């Protein structure tokens, strides 16, 4: 039968499709990203493929058992490619061939041709990853003009403070005496239907300028709320609470109350409205501003802030010593808050997950924490906790985890220190979980730009849908990781038996799938500096089940990255064999690898034997002297990316400004800088203030106190 041009056009849909029983015919293919033969022996000698535009030619299983996936089938005779004869034998030794602008490929006759065999012939365009949606809303943190009563509370008068809270209405300001301690556990009321804000502030709030993160030295300008029972120091228990802003408060648990073996099994600040089943009843418009929220080195504190509400902001604050023996602990956690949520310019120290989204069943049906902006924060896990003896052996996991969240921007943060303990020592963990039957849970539309991630066993872990609960969740999807630096990702120092990977990408295992798991998809990793150390020299590691038994995941784009190490697959050699096995719809181009063993990579791979060949400049980061990451203009990889920008990080101006602000606690304008341009293509000078080099670690990990004081946070 004859295959028409119309049939050929139909066969080029983004989703792979098949053509029926082709014995004679002509395929005209216009600008395909990929051309795949799934059963080439079904093509007759008179079947001709006219390929117009750049393409990649793939053949899969030309004869049963005759060729491995990815080889060019021997039945294909390649002729007249713009007047150049191509030897088919040479094609069999490679798995992809980039064709010129126009090409004709003829198929020889195959003995025993059966019409139905050709149903396995597929022509399809390679699918490129969809880009994530950015947050659709954020929290307005503009200071309101207060027109109501000013209620000044005498030093230490806890009863009067609670009465003032209960009597307050929109427009009121409650002033607590700086340097004074208000002992007790305080309840925030529903102030009813009114317009405006209630502000609770320190009498010396003018000493704490907006846009500057508070530090330990700021405590003298704060009023202190000290919890005296194993419950939240500040509790939002009623439904419908709205429009409270807290400025310049120190919030803690009194000495001896929460100390081991006692345990505060909730948050120091508990924003949840009693976990109602309607998002409209959760707390709304709550701002924690320039506050110091903390435990002590000997206390069990499960959470700093539980942010289960709408329009919640935590800004310019310092949260530290949040840890617990035997249970997970977080500086900030949200599992029943719809968002938007703004987390900006904070120091965040916690043992398990410094920030966690999800982690428990949502009381509101189909709720996904959404429209989350995380900008200019210093995520920190205190290295002195490593190897602590009981009862101070806190549960150590990661720095940022997504179990249920969507439309998230993570921009201009510094993430420092994580090691193998209760988990594998990853900095960012993306792993959807369907707790309590929440099958709608997902980790979707995540954007990571201009961040510095350092001193850990693994950078990012990105996983498929929930393997641990029935029914399963949605998978991780639509993720962009662009213009970030990962350094000192080291198996020897921070991992035990695994790690040393910038990325761990987890596919579904092959075989039975009773829980209907689905793979992560639409992942873009572009313009990053990835500097790792491990015994196996793998910077990107893919796994799925035991040994190489994974179901391929994709689409995935891996472009313009500069990395030390290879792309490896569990049980497979690095390079193209791992790429072909673990992924589908791969866009791979302009990646520079410093590798001692990787040679089998797709076109668009530049392989070096040593980092010196990259040609870095001499600039250093203030807290890490002698380091350099920015490419010199004389480097062959300067302006050599697919977009004619530096391979690796190219927008040093934005990354330098953002991460230095995160370290120092001066965040003014950082988010505005991000909004000036799209995340796909950013302009700006390539002048470097922040440059780092591979493999440099502090000689001795600094304590949290020393780092915070030195960095002005």
Could you characterize what this model shows?
It is a single chain. The chain is mostly beta strands. It folds into three domains: 119 residues, no CATH class; 230 residues, Pectate Lyase C-like (3 Solenoid); 286 residues, no CATH class. It has eight helices and 49 strands. α3 links the parallel β10 and β11. The longest helix is centred in the last third of the chain and has 13 residues.
Blueprint (SSEs and pairs):
Blueprint: H1 5-10, E1 17-18, E2 25-30, E3 35-37, E4 47-52, E5 55-59, E6 76-79, H2 88-91, E7 97-99, E8 102-107, E9 122-123, E10 150-152, H3 158-167, E11 173-176, E12 181-183, E13 186-187, E14 198-202, E15 223-227, E16 234-236, E17 242-247, E18 249-253, E19 264-271, E20 284-289, E21 292-294, E22 301-307, E23 310-315, E24 318-322, E25 330-334, E26 341-344, E27 347-350, E28 353-357, E29 370-375, E30 378-380, E31 398-402, E32 405-411, E33 414-418, E34 426-430, E35 443-449, E36 452-456, E37 458-462, E38 476-482, E39 485-490, H4 491-494, E40 501-506, E41 521-526, E42 529-533, E43 538-543, E44 556-559, E45 562-564, E46 566-569, H5 576-582, E47 586-589, E48 591-594, E49 605-608, H6 652-664, H7 670-675, H8 704-710
Parallel strand pairs: 2-4, 3-5, 10-11, 11-14, 12-15, 13-16, 14-17, 15-18, 16-19, 17-20, 18-21, 19-22, 20-23, 21-24, 22-25, 23-26, 24-27, 25-28, 26-29, 27-30, 28-31, 29-32, 30-33, 31-34, 32-35, 33-36, 34-37, 35-38, 36-39, 37-40, 38-41, 39-42, 40-43, 41-44, 42-45, 43-46, 44-47, 45-48, 48-49
Antiparallel strand pairs: 1-9, 4-8, 5-7, 6-8
